[in-house]
Amino acid sequence: MLIILMITTFSVAKGVKNNTILIETESFANKGGWVVDPQFMDQMGSPFLLAHGNGKPVANATTQVKFSEKGEYIMWVRTKNWNSPWNENQAPGRFNILINGIKTGTEFGTQPSKWGWIKGGNINILENEITLDLQDLTGFDGRCDAILFTKSKKFTPPNENAEMEKLRSKLLGLKIINEGDFDLVVVGAGMAGLTTSITAARLGLKVALIHNRPLLGGNNSPEQFVVASGGINLLPYTKLGNVVAEIGNVYDDYGKTLKLIQHENNIKLFINMNGNGVEMNGKHINAVYATDIITSKKHKFNCLYIADCTGDANIGFLAGADFMMGRELRSEYNELLAPEVQSNLSLGSTVRWYAKKAETTQSFPLTPWAVNFTEVTAQHTTQGTGWWETGFRYDQIKDFEYIRDYALRVIYGNWSFLKNESKKSSEYSNYNLSHVNYLPGKRESRRLIGDVIFTQNDVENGGKKYNDGCIMATYTLDQHFPTAENTIYFPGEEFISYQKHNFNPLGISRSEIDDKNVNGPFLIPYRCLYSRNIDNLFMAGRDISVTHIVLSSTRVQRTNGMMGEVIGMAAQVCKKNGTNPRGVYTTYFGELKKIMIQKVIAVK
Questions:
Q1: Averaged pLDDT, 359-380
Q2: 454: which strand partners?
Q3: CA 440 from centre of chain
Q4: Are 313 and 362 in contact (CB under 8 A)?
Q5: Considering the domain boundaries, does residue 488 fall inside one?
Q6: Which end of the chain is more exposed for a tag (fewer CB within 10 A), N or C?
Q7: How many other CB atoms sit within 10 Å of the CB of residue 159?
Q8: How far apart are CA 428 and CA 55, in angstroms?
Q9: Which CATH number does the domain housing residue 323 bear?
Q10: Are strands 446-448 and 323-325 parallel, antiparallel or unpaired?
Q11: Which pLDDT belongs to residue 520?
Q12: How distant, in Å, are the alpha carbons of 63, 83, 186, 429, 522 from that of 330?
């Protein structure tokens, strides 16, 4: 569906009078080799098209645009030079805009330094319908958000998110679509969101599952391939993990996962929708809003209860839920593994990549704009595993586009050196850089605060001091740090990590385990799974109420999945008894325990 609207009879903003046309690039009819990138909508306001060709120009994105009136228009293009944070004079992501196959204006992607509008010149429209193309020139991640044509010489499109949303809504004729009432709205369909939805649906709740990607699974999806770790079906609730086991690794059999959701009559699935708004009544969420990534239409979901399974705690943040972020000081919770002085280090994000060997020589461009390498600093490998990790010292939400783009500069720069300059280049001559994931796998960002904040000290006693312990966590306290060598050569911009495992729940001998602080499994309390100040908000995944140290264990997929099973059960207890998540603990926890002991009925 092409999102365009011609305004011919009224003004939608100061200076906009007649024949103003907005084209959101994610709605192009034929995207060619360009991909839709919605990861940074909350920061820059919109999805955009990305020319992600790993150094080879991708096929044109193309669409048709109708004009009610011919004549001269001013063309505006919303784009950026993504390399500007490092060198604004070098622009790897360049592209052209073609009208009926003819280049317009100069090359785009060379400016501005941040997302903004560039005037593309005066365009003489000779026909009522034109073919509009985005022509990638480099294969190095050029990006285009929107194209606007206007006859108004006084009009400059707004760039701030709120003003741009108003303009987009009016020019595209967008209206809110009310999807109706749900018992439970689950935002995020990673492992935690999937298990939450399936469990609640099988217990009779009407569920809306909202996900901001075309594929389900989050980090465990076919887009990310992060293996599901952590133990399941453990004491004291040996049935917890049944839904996790039923799903398995999403990327192993995506069709099976999709069928699981589609076969649940109580689940209504909404993919390619970014949950980015809430309607509040005091400390209660009445409704969630989500924007369709392709059509820009906004959808409303009325709800009794919310499960924030976004990873970034986006819904909780929008609702005003209390949250933590970053590394706590040792003095805050008396955690031995926490730093004594303030540190901006956090767990980073990984962009996975690999090269494949061909029968003939494969070329790769020189990349003077990328991170520069030498024989000493280069990583001699044909794949980037989970240890390729960036953004240790940056905000994993606010700075996420920067973090992703820096990872691309590292990968491209390292590969270019291996192929073109290294003394060992002959070893790589037949290798082709076949895959670089433009979707980073994120490990840490916001954590919502519940009635209990679980700490390292709680880990050391197995969580035994809490009478609502329910989810047995078995993964090590797995802190990630930049390697010392990487810090020497790339201070502040490291990209290789090492792991420090401080606890071995299964008693397996591992050379990297520090003999100090080696402990057994621990039970995560139910009170870590709901917000302390938003009265109908659950959470499951890496955004639960734990410290940074504990997150290093609880973030893994299967543990997240068991969290989802528990809050799916708790939501049913809430609805049955007309209570809220806290009320389940204070009054109805015995009822929740009975459900956790039983097996959630599988689909027949």
A1: 97
A2: 546
A3: 8
A4: no
A5: no
A6: C
A7: 15
A8: 16
A9: 3.50.50.60
A10: antiparallel
A11: 66
A12: 56, 37, 34, 50, 21
Q: How far apart are CA 106 and CA 123, in angstroms?
A: 13
Domain containing 264: what range?
Answer: 181-330+444-474+521-597
pTM of the entire structure?
A: 0.93
Alpha-carbon gap, residue 273 to 209, rounded angstroms: 10
pLDDT tens sequence across 559-570: 999 999 999 999
Q: Are 545 and 448 in contact (CB under 8 A)?
A: yes
Count of residues in the chain: 604
Site of tokens 């319908």: 129
Residues 11 and 102 in one domain: yes
Burial of 330 (0-12, 13-18, 19+ CB in 10 A): middle
Structure-token match 């785009």, residue found: 108
Tally of CB atoms within 10 A around 110: 21
Give the residue-averaged pLDDT of 167-196. 96
Looking at the structure, tell me whether residues 249 and 279 fall in a common domain.
yes
> Strands 177-187 and 207-210, how do they pair?
parallel
Token pair in block for residue 523: 């039970």
Residue of 497, 122, 560 whose CA lies nearest to 308 = 560
DSSP lists the bridge partners of residue 434 as none
Convert the pLDDT of each residue in 24-75 to its tens digit: 999 999 999 999 999 999 999 999 999 999 999 999 999 999 999 999 999 9
Residue 491 CA to chain centroid, in angstroms? Answer: 26
Q: Report phi then psi at 99, rounded to 5.
A: -120, 120
The reported pLDDT for the residue numbered 122 is 95
According to DSSP H, which parts of 421-473 are helical?
Answer: 456-460
pLDDT value of residue 433: 98
Domain boundary among 120, 151, 171: 171
Distance separating alpha carbons of residues 311 and 315, to the nearest angstrom? 10
**Which of residues 171, 190, 220 is at a domain's end?**
171
Q: Which residue, 267, 269, 308, 266, is CA-closest to 285? A: 308
Local confidence band at 88 (pLDDT 50, 70, 90 cut-offs): very high
Lowest-pLDDT range of 150-164, 249-263, 513-527, 546-560: 513-527
Residues 93 and 217 in one domain: no
Report whether 41 contacts 276 (CB < 8 A).
yes
